[in-house]
Amino acid sequence: KARARAGVVRRRVLMAAMIASRAAVRYGPRSHHPNPMLIVMKRDATAEEVAGVVSRVETMGLKANAIPGAQRTAIGITGNLGALDRGSFESLPGVFDVIRVSHPFKLVSREFQPSDTVVQIGRVAIGGPEVVVIGGPCSIESYEQTLRLAQRVRAAGAQLFRGGAYKPRTSPYSFQGLGLPGLEILARVSEEVGLPTVTEALDIDVLDAVAEHADVVQIGARNMQNYTLLKRAGRCGKPILLKRGMTSTVTELLLAAEYILDQGNPNVILCERGIRTFADHARNTLDLSAVPAIEKISHLPVIVDPSHAAGKSGMVRPLARAAIAAGADGVMIEIHDRPAEALSDSEQAILPEEMDRMMNELRALAPVVDRKM
Ligand code: PEP
Ligand code: MN
User: What distance in angstroms lies between residue 346's CA and the mean position of ligand 2's atoms?
Assistant: First the structure.
């Protein structure tokens, strides 16, 4: 009898969950967004037919993005699609199907581009078969410190060097970064050591200078929803490393990336860096499930920053291993050879020797998940 009762309860719970999830799809956050559409052309559609669809879309005041694929061309429609009818496109010559994209984002979605985006930074490719490691100090502190650490990062076998010149600090009394002189040090060391660089653009005032001095522009967790900055980043001409906000969902991260792609910059690398939870054994909670979740719905590469997630040097290496095991395209870690003297994030910096160990572990791990390193 008790078992039958439990069965009834379980069915009721399941039913309630189903109703709730349908309601969420219908009335939840997604309904606030216009419905993006994708026009899939027939395999044998001609260039004229593709152009015909594009011009029809444009005469409706919308943006058309033709995406040639191996099999067929698809045309993504952006703009206000509030009252748009599928029928207006279905009958055009060469059209195979008109799909309502099921996510609020479009350009970043797998429906829009099934194949993985590979972001090319000189000879370094992020999102391809090879796992990539970005290493360096939290902050650029001096020319000597930067040169020393860049040499260690290079010797460890990492592909990119990081270091902040503009630091987002919780306290206004904490070290704020060297600013422009820091960028100049970074560019000089990059040249001398031969590693491309990543550094943060804290606001629109410094974005152009950052894009001029670095190879990849980082948008930090605190700025993930700074839409003015995202739009400018979309026009800066450099790849963007976009970090997940500490209270942001994966959908919000992807919509933030959408802003950058919408401005014409397809080179976005997403970064999971831990989110705020009740757990207090680490600085943040590394949400590794974001990695396969993103991989499923977006073609953009995803890396993991175990340093800001952990906040403690002892947790960085295990979390880096877990990130690669979960399918991340790379990791970004903070190192320092004199952690006690570091001007920011001293507790999470690992020593260069520890980085060497991590690299060996990741090299062993990569083939297990069908990657190279
Ligand atoms: C950083 O990478 O230097 C940084 C400040 O990270 P986050 O924006 O993730 O806190
Ligand atoms: Mn830091």
Answer: 8
Spell 47-64 as b/e; 16+ CB within 10 A means b.
eebbebbbebbeeeeeeb
- Which DSSP string do the residues of 224-286 spell out, in sequence order? TT-HHHHHHHTTSSS-EEEEPPTT--HHHHHHHHHHHHHTT---EEEEE--B--S--SSSSB-
DSSP conformation letters of 135-201: EE-SB---HHHHHHHHHHHHHHT-SEEE-BSS---SSTTS-----HHHHHHHHHHHHHHT--EEEE-
Count of CB atoms situated within 10 Å of the CB of 248: 18
Mutational pocket test of ligand 1: of 161, 170, 199, 200, the residue with most ligand atoms within 8 Å of the beta carbon: 200
* pLDDT tens per residue across span 46-61: 999 999 999 999 998 8
What is the β-pairing status of strands 132-136 and 124-126? unpaired
Burial of 87 (0-12, 13-18, 19+ CB in 10 A): exposed
Which pTM was predicted? 0.80
